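Standup notes
- DV: blocked on the single-chain target, sequence here:
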Amino acid sequence: MENVRVSPGKAVSVGEVSVENKTGNSIVVRYDNARKTVLLVDCCLEEQGK
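- DV (later): unblocked, structure below
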C-alpha cells in the first residue's frame, strides 16, 4: 500500500475510489486492497504553520 497526500480542496484517485479533501489541511490516505477501504494516515498541519 502506498500513502497519498491530498491537498486541501483537492480530489485524487486512491485504489478504486476517489478521495476529496474538504479540510483546510493536507491529509495522507492509503487504500487497503484487502478490506477495500481508505485509511486516514495523517493530517498535516503545515498549512497552519504548526
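- Follow-up: The chain has no helices and five strands.
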